[in-house]
Amino acid sequence: MATITEHDVSYGDDKKIHYLASGPAENGPLIICLHGWPATAITWKSQLDAFATLGFRCVAPDMPGYGQSTARHEVSDYSQQSLVTGMMALLSHTGRKSAVWVGHDWGAGVASSVATQHPEVVKALVTLCVPYRTIELGWKGFLPLVNREIYPAEEYEYGQWDYMKNYEENFEKAVAWFDSDIAGLLKAVMQPSKPAGSRISPFANIRKDGGFFGGAPKPPSADMIPQAPIIPADVFSRMVKEMEGTGFWGGSAYYMNHESNGVYNGRKEGKLSMPVMFIHATRDLVCDTKTSRLAEPMREHCSNLTEVTIDVGHWVQLEKPQEVNAALTRFILEELPGEWPGFWESGYTKRKTIL
């Protein structure tokens, strides 16, 4: 198991990003992993361990609003423009000029924004569940791609993204509901996925139901959920403690910047020439990339695209870490062989003898 160290980088007007790092600091090819909602850096522990063991330098920040990073109650702190500024400060702090960027959920949106705005710092882009050229463009990036056979517009105006509209209409109420039992909510959210029954996501009825979990007055308590979460106990315990420290305000404010995000990323054509990999999760009913058109803009904007499908729910790198790590390893070997640790100095020689 790799040694994980902790670091801080200051940037902007008294803001800070806290990050975890593993692997050789001087010559390990750099991978940066960005988490989404809700999580903290420690949820990338499987990747921090695996890729450090292979000789990479693997870095995972507490994204702004989470963990030990700055978590101010300022909506603009969580716009894509502000988040990209933070990621560029993080990259600079590593002493590197570029990296392989990996993102899940909102972390995928931020990694995609980095690729859009600063392609020169992205050796390769890897996104899980959320394709490039969607969520980072605001409502216009994903709402038109809803599968209207599953979500007729007259009944589901916002499709499976209804919960995002709920944030805009009931932000403080939603945050207060999350904060009323953080441990219980996180345990409920991070349960093993099951094959989809109905293709209708429960997130499509949030406003109709009056909130999450069918409008329940608060999340279920942890002791009401007999099954363990999908992540190791020590990782889950640290994440809960960190989420209880910040609450959900900052993490939820990512959903409050759709208009400014559309303007910021909409100014760029967004065509990518570097290698891109996207990991589909077949059981993800919100980020539904298998029966909707959500992946189409990515396919139109990426000239070197690899797609991988894993039969799992939204928390793909947590529930199936071996499969995700294997896909990322193969992708780097095939698309970025020069980034493999020791590629240029190990004297690796292959000989064939005819017998």
Automatic annotation (TrEMBL):
This is Alpha/Beta hydrolase protein. Belongs to the AB hydrolase superfamily. Epoxide hydrolase family. SUPFAM superfamilies: alpha/beta-Hydrolases (SSF53474). It comes from Diplogelasinospora grovesii. Keywords: Hydrolase. The keyword tRNA processing does not apply. Residues 29-144 form the AB hydrolase-1 domain. One of its GO terms (molecular function) is hydrolase activity. The keyword Hydrolase applies. Gene3D superfamilies: alpha/beta hydrolase (3.40.50.1820). It holds the Pfam family Abhydrolase_1. InterPro entries: AB_hydrolase_1, AB_hydrolase_fold, Epox_hydrolase-like.
